Amino acid sequence: MAPGTEPNPINDDPALEGGEWLFRRAGEVFGPVDSRTLAAMLYRGELEPTTPVSSGDGHWTPVGELPPFVVHAKKAQAALRVEREVTGARLLRQRRGRRKALAVAAAALLLVAGAIGGAFLMARRSAGTNPLLEDFGAGIRIASVARVGVSSRAAPDDEIEVPLDGGPGEGTPGAGPGGGGGARGALRREPGLTGRGGPAGRAASGDVSGGELVAAQFDERKIQSVVAREQRTLVPCFRAEAARSPEFRGDVPIEFAIGNDGRVAALWVDDPRFKQGALRDCLLQALHGWRFDPFPGQRPTVSLAFRIGQ
């Protein structure tokens, strides 16, 4: 072997001579490719050890269990793991360097601008530590601030009646905008009501027959507070997905609905690859541990997105 060269684990392995293989990924069949190409795809992270392959005889076996590829699958996983750790450490050093440079610039601005510069610095620091935009390291971070609203996906039969002192009636739901204070909600009417709606959060005024118009609200600010506190519990799910699919990079938007009991009632992952499977199951299990304040009326939904990779 010439000085300065290293053995190639693929070219130097006689077990990879010949052979043609089909492989199955995302429900589709690809190939045929020869054994060396298949091993190279393992080292590049394009295939997992669990990827089913076939020699064309109709039998499918995980590539990491086939004798010619067992050692290569293990070596490839180890190399990719080291590469991710090295990349994560390098990105962390870069972020720290940028933060340090920003701190030096902010300090200089404070000395020059006086009181105005001090106020500006505090505003920048406040924005930089906003928990809704947190960066969790290892290539996992929030891609968009959580938004609270009422989605068309929220079924109207999740609303509950808000009775007055006169006792509950068998209601027919009606929807309307919520009132001030950052809250949104739904208006509910009992049978026979003819009055006009007043401000959200109180009984309506006007000509009322057989009952009153009642505003039912949820508190958007309290929901945002719970999301900011609990969103870290979703990070392990995305880290596990990044380990399962090292080639994946991009945003994963999710949306969940909050039931009247303050628990997460439904989850949607708006990416065709993750509508079902391990990532969705993990997210749903984590979200079941979140607790919001119970509330009457139409259920809100919360949408946000996590980013895997840079």
TrEMBL record:
List membrane-spanning regions.
101-123
Instruction: Answer whether the UniProt record assigns the keyword Magnesium to this protein.
Output: no
Q: State the protein's name.
A: GYF domain-containing protein
Q: What Pfam families does this protein's entry cite? A: GYF_2 (PF14237)
InterPro entries from the UniProt entry? GYF_2, MasK-like_C
The GYF domain, residue ranges:
21-67
Q: Where is the composition biased (Gly residues)?
A: 166-184
